[in-house]
Amino acid sequence: MRRLPVEGDRVRWRLYGLVAVGGFRRYATYRAATLAGVFTNTVFGFILAYAYTALWDQRPRLGGYELPEAIAYVWIGQALLAAASLIGGGFENDFMERIRTGAVVTDLYRPADLQLWWLCADLGRSAFQLLGRGVVPMAVGGLAFEVAMPTPWWRWGAFVLAVGLGVVVSFALRYLVALSAFWLLDGAGAVQISWLAGMFFSGMLLPLNLFPGALGEVARALPWSSLLQVPADVYLGRRTGWDLLGAYAFQAGWACALLLVGRLVQAAATRRVVVQGG
Predict the structure, then answer these.
(1) HSE (CB half, 13 Å, CA atoms) of 149?
(2) In whole angstroms, what is the distance from residue 198 CA to residue 177 CA?
């Protein structure tokens, strides 16, 4: 991988910062899509909130949640749906298309790390989706339903940090899926398997605390739980003190492990590009 010549690390990190800003600005231009996403998330939030209300009326304290906590979980899920790409969507489609067309060769000649480049672009996208599609549905849900709020105030910061770590885990998972295009050329099938796994194991359908027995234990140990279940637990105050640090360590551990695997797979994939003639 080529490095920036003499400008040094500061210039290189400024480049990655500009890539993140570019990712934010790119999605900010899709105003109609953002408004449609806000509307869709809000509608689905209402549907799920009423379904949860009916379920909790029959089974109070299901999974250890009071009804306001369960309703909060619904709106947290809607807020993170696009930001954490719980059902896919993000850089991977562009990346796989560049692999399919061979344009990724140009990316490999850039004086920047390929994985870090796409990570910064995806962080910019996620930041916009959180602000553009996450805040409004959550605010509407808070006005329409009795929603548990994090107290004390600093728990908001703890929640945002958990969301940030979850976004990195989400990127690392999707990066691995996108790299499969080096072998499959059309990674649509891998993407569909990925978003099905993400929707089920992140807790998007139901909180993972409701999963029975061994299934629940396994689901909570998988990386997808970092995307929604862990941030929701932090928001609801179920992770405090050392347990909160354990939650961060869980997310950071999965992020580091998956990013490392991504680098290894990327190295193998780029060697394949050379074998094919570039």
Answers:
(1) 11
(2) 12
**Over the stretch 190-233, which tens digit does the pLDDT of each residue have?**
888 888 898 899 999 899 999 999 999 999 999 999 999 999 99
What distance in Å separates the CA atoms of residue 230 and residue 250, rounded to the nearest whole number? Answer: 9
Q: What is the pLDDT of residue 168?
A: 97
Whole-angstrom Cα distance, residue 262 to residue 146?
42
The candidate with the shortest Cα–Cα distance to 79, out of 31, 71, 12, is 71
Q: What is the DSSP string of 183-216?
A: HHS--HHHHHHHHHHHHHHTTSSS-GGGS-HHHH
The letter for the amino acid at 127 is: A
**Residue 228 vs residues 27, 45, 172, 186, 243: alpha-carbon distances, Å:** 22, 15, 15, 28, 17
- Read out DSSP for 35-63? HHHHHHHHHHHHHHHHHHHHHHHHSTTGG
Rounded CA-CA distance 232/226 in Å is 10
CA nearest 38: which of 134, 122, 143, 124? 134
User: What parts of the chain have a pLDDT lower than 50?
Assistant: 1, 278
The tokens for 72 are: 């909060």
Q: From the centroid of its chain, how far is CA 172?
A: 9
